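Task 17 of the worksheet. Students: predict the tertiary structure of the chain below and write it out as structure tokens. Keep your answer in the requested format; marks are given for formatting as well as content.
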Amino acid sequence: MVAGAGGVKTGKDGGHDDENMLETPSELTGAETLAAGALAAGVQYVTGYPGAPATSVVEVLLEQAPDLTVEWAVNEKVALECALGASVGGWRSLVAVKSVGLNVAVDPLLTLNFTGINAGLVILLGDDPGAHVSQNEQDTRGLAYFAELPLLEPVTLDLGAEVMRTAFDLSESTSLPFILRVPWPFVQTTAEVKVPPPASAPLRPLSLAPFQWISTGYNAVANHVRLHARLADLEERFTASPWNQRWGQGLCGVVAVGFAAEKLRPASEEVPPLSVLALTTVHPLPRGLVLDFLSTVERVLVLEENDPWVERQIKALAQEAKLTLPIWGRESGHLPVGDELREENIRQALAWLLKGKTHPPPSPLRPPPDLYTFCQECPYIPTLEALREAIAAVGREVVVTGDPGCLIWAAAPPYELLHLKYCLGASINLAAGLARARPNCRAVALMGDSSFYHTGLPGLVNAANLQHCALLLILDNGATATTGFQPTPNVGRNARGRPSPSVKMEDLVAACGLTPVIVDPLDREHTRTVLQAALERDDLSVVIVRRPCPLLEAAARGEVRRPQYRPLQSPVGTVSQPALNPAAR
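Model answer:
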């Protein structure tokens, strides 16, 4: 480990306090270190929406803190707004979302940056370079820059707890929410680390000064100016932060952002000495620290996941300081423009860096992953078979839209039914718009139960109000299966498995003026008959296909944590095209 990286507590201004760390290191995952940091900060409220890789941190908190208030919200916007309310009320709050999940919460995000917060508020952001379990490969750091909010990325596992804990302190001292970003490998990796013991935080006083929590034309500009002043103060603190580490001596430099520093280590040990700057404080960027580093090297390689945000900032800093050294990274072509940083990419880029090679050939992307299909005994299988038979029977053009989740495999052989899929809740809106453009086509929207509660309901309300024609097929398997079988509002239990009021989807559908038909997919003939009749209509119809996921009982016993997807076999072996990832959310 790097000097200063492990076994430390950082106070409000980054001071070390080894006395409050556990004396004996433990073998922990990154998810466990982050959870330990939240507990050490005295977190009082945890919410979010299931989505890897952030989900695993919430699962650890559910297991290790039985008295902590932990809730799964119906979507990320709701989660962030609940957490903000708890923060205003005086509770330290943690919001766990994945990359595409923060997109859903942008509306409140771009106003709470102006009003600020009361008790510490941390947004744990799980990004997915390489799109292992996501429908895209977005670099969500862009939203932190867009919202002008501080962003942290721990460079090592043993900084995870420290950065999480201190983020709550910094959030309170600056009255700003903090975004703590971790990629998929961070939460999965294990290491011997020291973590602080759990602590408690006092209930902060509630302040209701006029316009304190209201941003409008009256105070928006003043709030914006104040936000920039807070960020300037943070930049000064970040410049001296021990979280940003330097090691090695050499004329070739590497700026490694967040967990990319750990990926650099194996490759850097096999080449001549390098000067390395590992950054945990990503935004605001500690410009003085970066410029000091640039003045000691002849050329620089920037490693970051996965867009060249920091590379571009460093180039701008160098230009302002009239430094002429080459600065390379993803934008320059020395690293692939997409995909997760891989050891072979880093080794090749280091070789070019040491040789001063300015025009490298493009690096090949990894081959696409295997194509998968449903678990054994999945109720989606008879549902799709019945739908395929119904489509064949009606003899009209049918286009099928869908949402992320297990039903993504409807696009794979042997079904090949799914034609459009974008994001949660989109299927009904896609189907409605498509039916407007093609009145003779029957548009079918496939939507999971979790997706229905997430953002599917507003689309159904819109379709009912505007008299769109589509068939909404809700596949209710009783859980958010792809992310770990978290309950939906339909099932009557909360995140801890305790009883809670059930919000029946059929009641919500009925409130839209529609009469849903509920079928059991194991009654194959009845399901096919109902679907065929719905396909022959030219109106807005809703069919609920209800059968619990067969893995739910095993998940409740802790025997499985995720769906057991099966590689799709072809006569010549495992199918690899087109590329589709499991758990595409």
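Marker's comment: The chain has three domains: 18-239, 245-355, 372-574. Residues 1-19, 570-584 have pLDDT under 50 and may be disordered.
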